Amino acid sequence: METVRLTMAQALVQFLDNQYVELDGQEHKFVNSMFGVFGHGCVVGVGQALNQGGHHIRFLQGKNEQNMALAATAFAKQKNRLEIIPCVSSIGPGAMNMVTAAGCATANRIPLLLLPGDTFACRQPDPVLQQAEFFNSFGQTVTDAFRGVCHYFDRIERPEQLMTAAIHALRVLTDPADTGAVCLAMPQDVEGEAYDYPVSFLRKRVWHMDRHAPTAAQTERAAEIIRKAEKPLVICGGGVRYSFAGDALQAFCETTGIPFSETQAGKSVLPWTHPLNLGGIGVTGGQAANVIGRDADVIIAVGTRLTDFTTASKWLFKENAKVVSINICPFDAVKMDGEPIICDAREGLTALTAALKGYQYAHHDAVKAARDEWNAIVDDWYTKQDERGLSQTRALGIINEFMQKQDIAVGSAGSLPGDMQRLFRPGDRDTYHMEYGFSNMGYETNGALGVKLACPDREVYTFFGDGTYLMAHSELVTCLQEHLRVHFCLFDNSGWGCIENLQNNQGNDTFGTVFRFRNPETGELDGPGIPLDFARNAEGYGLKAYSVHTEDELKAALRDALTQDKPVLYDIKVVPGTMTPGYESWWRVGVAEVSTQPRVQAAYENLMEHVKDTRKF
C-alpha cells in the first residue's frame, strides 16, 4: 500500500481539498475555503498545514468563532448545500463560541463542518490554559457540548482515527436527509502527530447525491388522497429549493391548478407574481395563504419541517385536514400524522403530476380574490407614510423597490422576518435568504458575508435591527478585509421591538425590551432612550455609512452605495412599533397561568381558547 507521512492536520487539509459532490451529473468541489480564528490548539496544527501549502484551500480570517460559523452556514445554504466552508478554532472559549452556530445549522438542515481544537489527548500537561476540568471524567472536555447540537461528533485522539472520522463526517455533510452540523474535535497534540496515511485516503472522492424517487405505491397513495380533495393547498419549503425542484413545483401546480404557499425557506423558489402563489403562510405569513390554508382539506407539504411558525402552532389547519408530506427526511415526513412520501422533492412532484392527470382544482376565483386583496394590502404597507417619521414597512418597501432582480435579501430574527415574509417581493429565484429555523440573532450581519462569498457578483442586502447589531457584527470587518460590498440595512427602533410587541400582546407592560438609561429616581430601566449612532460605529471600522431619517435620505444613500467599493451600512432610524401585525394566525407561547395583571389573565384565557382548536400531533 502506498503511503505518505503527514501530520493529522496536514492529512485533514489534503483530504478536504479532494472532496467533491455530484448532483444530476455535475460535480462540485465541496471545500474551497476554510474559516479560522487562530489560537493555541489550532494555529500550529491546522494553521501550519494551511500555511505549508500543497492544497487549493483559501484561508478566510474570521473575527469571532460563532460569527464566522454563521457565515459558513449562510454560505452553504446559498449554495444549496453543494459546497461548505469548514471552521477551525482554538480550544476552550474559541471552540465553545461555535456551539450556537452548530445549533443553527442543525435546525436548518444545513451542512456545517466544525474543527475545534481540544486539550491534549496524552493528558500530560493537564490542566492546560483554557481547559475546564470535569471531576467525574478525565476524558470529558468542553467540546462534548457539541454532541447535543451536531448530527455527527467525533474526537480524534490518535492520528489514524482521522480516516474513519473524516469519512463519516462527509457521509453526514453530503446526505440531504441527515445533514446538519458535524464536529471533529482535534486535541492539539494529535494535530501535530504524524502517521503514514494511505494515498488512497487522500485521493479525489466524489459523494453522489442521488435522487431518490418515490415508489409506485407511495405515489398512488398520495394521489388517491389528493384526488378526493376539494380544497388542497401546497406548502413550498426549503427542500424544494435544495433539490432544485422549482420547475417541478410549477408544473405540478399549473397542471392541477392547486395553489401554493411559501415557508420562509421556500420563498423565492417561484415568482411572487405567479397567479397560484398565495405568499407566506403561518405566523409570519400573509392573509391570502392563511385564509386559504384555514379552509384546506388536504395539505401537500413539500420539503418543509412543518415548524410552529408554518402551522401557526398546529392551529392553522383543521383537525380533519389530511397532510401529504413529500420529504427526503423520514423524521419530517411523518409530522402532523402525515402520509409520508419519502423521496427527493423534484422526483416526488414529477411523479405526482403524472399520477394526477385530469385532476383540476375548482376554486380559482377564491384564490384570485385572496391574492388580489393581499397584494393591495402589501401595496398599502409599502407606500403609506407615518407622520411621526420613517416607518419600518415604508423603509423596507423603498429598499425592495430599489433592489434589482438578481439582488439577494438576507434576514433572520426580530420583527423584520415577519415583515419580509409578508411583504417582500423577491426579484428572481433564490434571492430571498431567510434563516428562520433557529432565528439566530447575528446571522443577518454575519450570514451576509457567507451569502456574498457564495455570490460575489451579486448585490447582497441584509436586514436586521439594532438589537442584532449589538449582539454580533464582527464579520463586517471581514467583508471590508475581503473587499466585499455588502449592504447592511440596520433598522434602529431603539430596542428589541419584536419581543416588546410579543410582550405587550400577551398582556404584559413593556419591561426590559427597550434600550433606555436606568432612571436614578425609580431604579428601573425607564429613563430616556439611549442615542446610539451606528453609522459612526461602522465608519470607525472603515465602512461607508449613512445616517437615514427620511425617505429621501434613504433613496439617496441607496444610489450612492452602488458607487462604493467596500461594504456599506445604512443606519435607518425608524419609528418604533411600525412593523406589520399578524394575519389570520396564532402563535403559542407560554403565558402566565396566574397573574395579578388583568390583561395577562385575559391573554391566558385567549391561549386556552386557541389550544382547544389546535391539532394535537
Can you walk through the features of this model?
By secondary structure, this protein is of the alpha/beta class. It has 3 domains: 3-208, Thiamin diphosphate (ThDP)-binding fold, Pyr/PP domains (Rossmann fold, 3-Layer(aba) Sandwich); 216-370, TPP-binding domain (Rossmann fold, 3-Layer(aba) Sandwich); 384-494 and 530-573, Thiamin diphosphate (ThDP)-binding fold, Pyr/PP domains (Rossmann fold, 3-Layer(aba) Sandwich), CATH 3.40.50. 37% of the residues lie in helices and 18% in strands. The strands form 5 sheets. Strands 5-4-6-7-9-8 form a 6-stranded parallel sheet, with helices on both faces. Strand 15 (298-302), helix 13 and strand 16 (322-327) form a beta-alpha-beta unit. The model has no long low-confidence stretch (mean pLDDT 97).
The backbone outline, from C-alpha atoms, is globular
CATH topology of the largest domain, by name, is: Rossmann fold
As laid out across the biggest beta sheet, the strand order is 5-4-6-7-9-8
Tell me the distance between the termini: 55 Å
Number of strands: 23
pLDDT < 50 stretches: none
Main beta sheet: strand number and arrangement?
6 strands, parallel
The helical percent reads 25-40%
- Quote the average pLDDT: 97
CATH superfamily of the largest domain: Thiamin diphosphate (ThDP)-binding fold, Pyr/PP domains
Structural class: alpha/beta
In DSSP terms (H or I, runs of 4 or more residues), the helix count works out at: 25
Overall domain count? 3
Class of the largest domain in CATH?
Answer: Alpha Beta
* % residues in beta strands: 15-25%
Which CATH-level-2 architecture of the largest domain?
3-Layer(aba) Sandwich
Return Rg in Å: 25 Å
